[in-house]
Amino acid sequence: MKTLFITLFLLSSLLFSQQDTLTILHLNDTHSNLAPSAPRTATLDGTTGGIARAASVIGLTKMTELNVLTLHAGDFFVGDLMFNFYFGVPELQILQSLGVDAIAVGNHEFDLMPSTLTTALKTAFPSLAQKIPLLSANAIMEDTSVTALKDFIKPYVIKEYGKIKVGIFGMTTTETNTFSLPSPVVIDTNVFVCAATMVETLKANGCNVVIMLSHLGRFYDEAMAQNIPGINIIVGGHDHYTTESPVVIDNSYGGKTWFVQADAFYSRIGKMKIGVEGENVSLLDYQSILLDGNIPEEPTVKAVVDQLTTGLETTLSWKVFTEKIGEATEDFNEVAVLTQPGRFDTPIGNLVSDAFRDATKTQIAVQLGGSTAQKLYKGPIVAADVFRMIGYGFNEVNGLGYRLATFNITGAELWKGFEICLATAEYNDEMLPQVSGMEYSFDLNLPAYLRLRWIKINGVDIDPNSTYTATANEFFVAALPQFGVEISNLSLLAETAELQVVVSYIAAHSPISPSQEGRVTTELNDNNEILPEKFDLKQNYPNPFNPTTTISYSIDQPSFVTLKIYDITGNEVETLINGYQTTGKHSVQFGIKNKSLASGVYFYRLQANGKFLTKSMLLLK
What we know:
This protein is α/β, with parallel strands linked by helices. Helix content is 25%, strand content 32%. It folds into three domains: 22-290, Metallo-dependent phosphatases (Purple Acid Phosphatase, chain A, domain 2), CATH 3.60.21.10; 323-521, 5'-Nucleotidase, C-terminal domain (5'-nucleotidase,  domain 2), CATH 3.90.780.10; 536-619, Immunoglobulin-like, CATH 2.60.40. It starts with a helix and ends with a strand.
């Protein structure tokens, strides 16, 4: 009898404690990578990731624990051939069958306009009663053409687990407005106001746990946590960050927020357990679970994925998952670490841009860092691995991703375009150009739009007045006019996707080995250290100019400095600098406002410590 009493007491205590705990499973940025990823076995089976492995973790957790909340922080669209031919529908249906409670709206959900997202959601969830809530508190959907989308996207959702009332609101990155096609949906840029309003709303509804399901990226997530009281947990996405343990962020109001994120592409799933007592939330446990060979694939979901793979290969008449196209001797990485000096060309950037230039025979080729997505792993390679490496594109002709385009560009416009790309490079490498047939060096310590040190085309200094032939994907080319960069002789290779070109290049050069050649650098000495400041005068930018241009220069030691402008006959036009300056980088503007200067060539001359440097510039009125 005593034993029975103790057993019943322990059981009741366990049940009581479970009513005050919550387990949160979280994914993000899965990008329709439903099938397992490389590294591959000799039989080409993927050994990591895949939605079937995530299904095993979700299923086991729901079987063994009470109060399980399953969240996805956005970007289930775009990034795999599975998406390009099934448009996200199978992933949504599988996630719904696994009991996912909410999904944040990511930027890539709008890559193919709201109409595509609406069609996918209607197909995946023919009954609105059985849909997964999509969350975005800052998606403005006032246009009548997106009324149907409002049935699926809500600002927040509230879930109850016994004494725990959880309010979950979604946030979408404002980059969506620039780099995707959300119109007529507009992503509100007042993200702090939106988030504060959501916290107030959820608290007013009696929520004692508030979760921000965020597709903003860690930079904004941490700023939110520091400045907005009342957010207990941020489940993040967008920048493919991995938290091995939750990041604890103290805010200015005396509270704390836990931030978590689970990498991307079904490579990991996070498992967080919290305790809740009234308004008090505590962290009990956290696991960042690697979805590798130690996690079995759930058989039912695996069978669905296998069927999708077979159907895709049949549609394409191309064994993109089951036929080897080459071999890599080592992993090819795609991320450039910009927080330290060094070489910033990436093995994948070099591989892809070389493939572009090899296919078109232009002088240079460019691929933005943000157009590469995943590493290429050591061992056997299939075409699907290559698509995942460059998998953010789509075209309506063959569905195989972005197509290639060739064009002409002057040295001056190329310089301008690269300065635009480098203007935000301290935040990430998304806009960092990876190149073939050229090299360039930059300095993030310099002001935005003045960061280039030099550009060389096939070993020769760039000539602002010369015209160069170039290759890039259609996304890059379409963006150039939006940023005021002029090109000419544009030719879209209508049926040639970058996937086809890179696959052919790998097949022709297999086995391939990664290289990092210093095509993109901060200037270094022989010890791989940043070079000391030197006496140097840069080419003015822009050049030709009207009405202003910027002249940058470096002083190698403290000295009296003069910088003067002369016309082509040698007459002094203006003194820009005439005084003592310290060692380092300097810049000054020269303008023609209120000056009666004629179009033509002018010279600018730098003098310091008995040394002189002179360069020419062109005024076009």
